[in-house]
């Protein structure tokens, strides 16, 4: 079973009153449990305020703040409900920082869902403009995670 298939199951169960779901297929067994009543540890939609703005452009190969008339931005959004992490482990540095030049297919962050680490990749080339979620925060399906500036030369 692939991560997208598991994500689809989670999305389908999200809006139901089902508290326990089990699936067994091809020797793989999955059990999903959620509390029957909301708890204080339930996931919540977090603020969409950016953590910070562009840093200085010192040391970057591409300008971190291209002229506004030549720039458009796109958000990378969460494909699943889970916990947002900027790095592969607590000891490792973040995948990207504000001002990082990214390429299509490059890993930007991880969303942990049911003990599965789902790498979230960039859908296009660009420069990280803002990181919209704090490390370790719960996110919902469709939550904007990272804003990427697309410029004519890379987009």
TrEMBL record:
Gene Ontology annotations for the cellular component aspect, listed alphabetically: acetyl-CoA carboxylase complex
The record places domain Lipoyl-binding at 73-149
Q: Do you know which InterPro entries this protein is assigned to?
A: AcCoA_biotinCC, Biotin_BS, Biotin_Carboxyl_Carrier/Decarb, Biotin_lipoyl, Single_hybrid_motif
Question: What pathway is this protein said to act in by its record?
Answer: Lipid metabolism; fatty acid biosynthesis
One Pfam short name = Biotin_lipoyl
GO terms of molecular function: acetyl-CoA carboxylase activity
What biological process terms from GO does the record include? Answer: fatty acid biosynthetic process
Q: Does the keyword Transcription apply?
A: no
Q: Which UniProt keywords apply?
A: Biotin, Fatty acid biosynthesis, Fatty acid metabolism, Lipid biosynthesis, Lipid metabolism
Please verify whether the record's keywords include Magnesium: no
Q: Looking at the record's lineage, which domain of life comes first?
A: Bacteria
Please give the residue ranges the record annotates as the region Disordered: 53-82
Task: State the function annotated in the UniProt record.
Answer: This protein is a component of the acetyl coenzyme A carboxylase complex; first, biotin carboxylase catalyzes the carboxylation of the carrier protein and then the transcarboxylase transfers the carboxyl group to form malonyl-CoA.
Report what the protein is called. Biotin carboxyl carrier protein of acetyl-CoA carboxylase
Per the UniProt record, the source organism is Leptospirillum ferrooxidans (strain C2-3)
């Amino acid at each position: 079973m692939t991560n997208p298939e598991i994500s689809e199951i989670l999305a389908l169960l999200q809006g139901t009153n089902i508290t326990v779901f089990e699936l067994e297929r091809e020797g793989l067994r999955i059990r999903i449990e959620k509390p029957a009543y909301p708890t204080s540890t339930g996931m919540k939609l977090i603020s969409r305020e950016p953590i910070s703005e562009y840093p200085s452009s010192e040391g970057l190969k591409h300008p971190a703040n291209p002229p506004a008339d030549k720039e458009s931005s796109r958000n990378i959004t969460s494909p699943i409900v889970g916990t947002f992490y900027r790095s592969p482990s607590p000891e490792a540095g973040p995948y990207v920082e504000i001002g990082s030049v990214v390429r299509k297919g490059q890993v930007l962050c991880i969303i942990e869902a049911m003990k599965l680490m789902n790498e979230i990749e960039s859908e296009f080339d660009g420069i990280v403009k803002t990181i919209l979620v704090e490390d370790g925060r719960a996110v919902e399906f469709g939550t904007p995670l990272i804003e990427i500036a697309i410029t004519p030369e890379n987009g």
